[in-house]
Amino acid sequence: MFTGIVTDMGEVRALDQAGDLRARIGCHYDMESVDIGASIACDGVCLTVIAKGADWFDVEISAETVSKTSIGRNSWHIGRRLNLERALKVGDELGGHIVSGHVDGVAEIVAMHDEGDSTRFTFRAPEALAKYIAPKGSVALNGTSLTVNEVEGTTFGVNIIPHTKAATTWGAAQPGDPVNLEIDTLARYVARLQEWNA
What we know:
The protein is mostly beta strands. The protein is built from four helices and 13 strands. It folds into two domains: 6-84, Elongation Factor Tu (Ef-tu), domain 3 (Beta Barrel), CATH 2.40.30; 103-195, Elongation Factor Tu (Ef-tu), domain 3 (Beta Barrel).
């Protein structure tokens, strides 16, 4: 489990397609404290550490994960910056919201404009997921816990403050970029209960 509070920006250093996709990700974590088999969210995708060095770790990414995330839209390339978050430990501060690292689909940035020092982003969600997104609810976008401002059909907006732009990959985002979307777990269960009772 994760919180959607990004704790490092990593960088894709190598990609190798041999069976599953293998990626080497550079980071600033103290890798002595990261065990083989640990989970790290990479742009919101929960991946397992299979090898590590002083300032990097390797992950294997299944074809299923590639097909359901922005990785399958060729958004990962050598030099690509990634939002990273290590898994929660018991007693950690829950600063964002409960995030599983299981991406539900890929949204797209359709517009951006500055509002004061912040930037208002508008996203288009896949139609099947739009019903789970509500004003003032939470979403995880590329592993970042964000609050939804407004929703209209399949589009929704969020504000990203200067700190978030500086501490994550959002400072380099552009319209047209694919974005990993994880809907709020509570919204998923509320919708399921409504379907069950219908």
